Amino acid sequence: MARPDPIGALEDLLERERRLILSGRLADLGRHAEAKARIVDALSREVRDPRHLDRLRAAASRNQGLLDAAAEGIREVRDRLTDMRRSVGSLATYSSDGERHVVSTTPGQLERRA
Questions:
Q1: Of 36, 50, 72, 88, whose CB count within 10 A is highest?
Q2: What is the SS3 assignment for 93?
Q3: For residues 75 and 82, what is the distance between their CA atoms, to the nearest angstrom?
Q4: Whole-prediction pTM value?
Q5: Distance (Å, rounded) from C-alpha 29 to C-alpha 35?
Q6: pLDDT reported for residue 107
Q7: What values do phi and psi take at 26, rounded to 5?
Q8: Cβ within 8 Å of residue 14, ≥6 positions away
Q9: CB of 67 closer than 8 Å to CB of 14
Q10: What is the pLDDT of residues 44-82, one digit of tens each?
Q11: Nearest residue to 47 via CA among 12, 14, 7, 76
Q12: Angstrom distance (rounded) from CA 35 to CA 13
């Protein structure tokens, strides 16, 4: 249930965002941007107890850490997929002295022997 006071409303919103991030539904985060802007605007017009603001700051920081971790994971997947695509047409081997050799393999180029 949404709370009417701006601090409670923002805490609720940050918790919903946290659940979205943890469930991997990052695309749904954009839905909250307008509501968050309205709540922050309402908060900026009111003088608040610093302890309340510290709780909000901690929740926002926690969500930012989760988003940073998600972004890093996405970058790692992208890099891994790029490496996999790159390796489809070649094979890298190493000689006994550690020298790297790349063998290009195109369809039909390899010879099959019985």
A1: 36
A2: strand
A3: 10
A4: 0.67
A5: 11
A6: 58
A7: -65, -30
A8: 56, 59, 60, 63
A9: no
A10: 887 677 888 888 999 999 999 999 999 999 999 999 998
A11: 7
A12: 8
